[in-house]
Design brief:
This protein has helices at about 15-25, 45-60, 75-90, 100-110, 225-230, 240-255, 260-280, 305-320, 345-360, and strands at about 5, 70-75, 95-100, 120, 145-150, 150, 155-160, 170-175, 190-195, 205-210, 285-290, 300-305, 320-325, 335. By secondary structure, it is α/β, with parallel strands linked by helices. The strands form four sheets. It has a seven-stranded mixed β-sheet with strand order 2-10-9-8-5-3-4, with helices on both faces. A three-stranded antiparallel β-sheet has the order 11-12-14. Strands 1-13 form a two-stranded parallel ribbon. Bound molecules: pyridoxal-5'-phosphate. Homodimer.
């Protein structure tokens, strides 16, 4: 069997070994078709089966209601930062954004290209160590929509529960926590997520959109950037990233075999608990970045007492086979990304390393 690293990469991130091995078997010849899936038309029956199986699995695993469309789009979640305002801003109704960290800030910057926006809440004054409480949010009932970032991948914070926005469309960037736990999709008007953290490789972005929001945008929007283009064509308007969709489909099958979103949540909570327990039990040797009430079960961020010690930790962890623990440059310190496909064994190994490192350096 492959010699697998303890992979804590933030994205692209670990994929299930079973998925990689299945894909390897089908890589050169896909289901007796005489060719690889990558070599065939996206209009043929063989690819279409994969495509629509992925849509159906996502619907099943997330419990997506019938009045929502599932779209596969390219350009990453970063393109959604622009597509959301382009398609959903209603003239004269500034959209509202919640500023929770690095990714929310990028979404905000992009939205500002299309007009005024309002900030419903910001935790910048707390260095984005927390998400706001629901009763801190302030937005007009007349706003085009309210945008939130479900999990701030860089700071390591995550919403516990989402605000009930009534008739205001709630838009969620779930790039780094989609399917990490069961959610009620009907709370959202739009959910978007790049696949490369929790659902597969990079190259495909999932958009789940309530049908009544797919119409003629008030702003002029190029064909490829209109939700209606992709919705009308079942995400086959132009060539989709066929291999990425195939890999996502295999990852979704794996997720279902594992017991779905509820089983994932249990496993993710256990992995997160193991790490936060070491941090909290280290008498200050390890310092969690996120406030305990906002801690993410996907990205665990922490620092040591000095930058020198941070560097030493990264260096020694790498020598022991741990990959991806260096935090994002904007926050510093360490980040362990423990997405769905990261096995609990990797986390146990990290816990042992952390305890050992403390005993040698504490
Ligand atoms: C990674 C990430 C993005 C950016 O995704 P791309 O697919 O690289 O554009 C956006 N939002 C969040 C929360 C992310 O984690």
């Amino acid at each position: 069997m492959a010699n697998r690293a303890y992979n804590f990469n933030a994205g692209p991130a670990a994929l299930p070994l079973e998925v990689l091995e299945r894909a390897q078997k089908q890589f050169v010849e896909f289901e007796n078709s005489g060719m690889s899936l990558m070599e065939m038309s996206h209009r043929g029956a063989v690819y279409e089966k994969v495509h629509f199986e992925a849509v159906a699995l996502l619907r099943e695993l997330m419990g997506i209601p019938h009045n929502y469309k599932v779209l596969f789009i390219q350009g990453g979640a970063s393109t959604q930062f622009a597509m959301v305002p382009m398609n959903l801003i209603k003239s004269g109704k500034a959209p509202a954004y919640i500023a929770t960290g690095s990714w929310a800030t990028k979404a905000i910057q992009e939205a500002k290209m299309f007009g005024d926006i309002t900030i419903a809440a910001s935790t910048e004054a707390d260095q984005y160590r927390r998400v706001p409480a629901i009763n801190e949010l302030q937005y007009s009932e007349d706003t085009s929509y309210l945008h939130l970032t479900s999990n701030e991948t860089i700071e390591g914070t995550q919403w516990r529960e989402y605000p009930d926005t009534g008739s205001v469309p709630l838009i969620g960037d779930l790039s780094s926590d989609i399917l990490c736990r069961p959610i009620d999709v009907s709370q959202f008007a739009v959910i978007y997520a790049g696949a490369q953290k929790n659902l597969g490789p990079s190259g495909v972005t999932i958009v789940i959109i309530r049908e009544d929001l797919i119409g003629q945008p008030d702003l002029p929007v190029p064909t490829m950037l209109r939700y209606s283009t992709h919705a009308k064509a079942d995400s086959l308007y132009n060539t989709p990233p066929t291999f990425a969709v195939y890999m996502m489909n295999e990852t979704l099958k794996w997720l279902k075999e594992q017991g779905g979103a509820a089983a994932m949540e249990q496993r993710n909570r256990e992995k997160a608990r193991l790490l936060y327990e070491v941090i909290d039990g280290s008498s200050g040797f390890y310092r969690g970045f996120a406030e305990p009430g906002s801690r993410s079960i996907m990205n665990v961020t922490f620092r040591l007492g000095s930058e020198e010690l941070d560097k030493k930790f990264v260096k020694e962890s790498e020598a022991e086979g741990f990959v991806g623990l260096k935090g994002h440059r904007s926050v510093g310190g360490m980040r362990a990304s423990i997405y769905n496909a990261v096995p609990v064994e990797s986390v146990r190994a990290l816990v042992n390393f952390m305890k050992d490192f403390q005993s040698r350096n504490g």
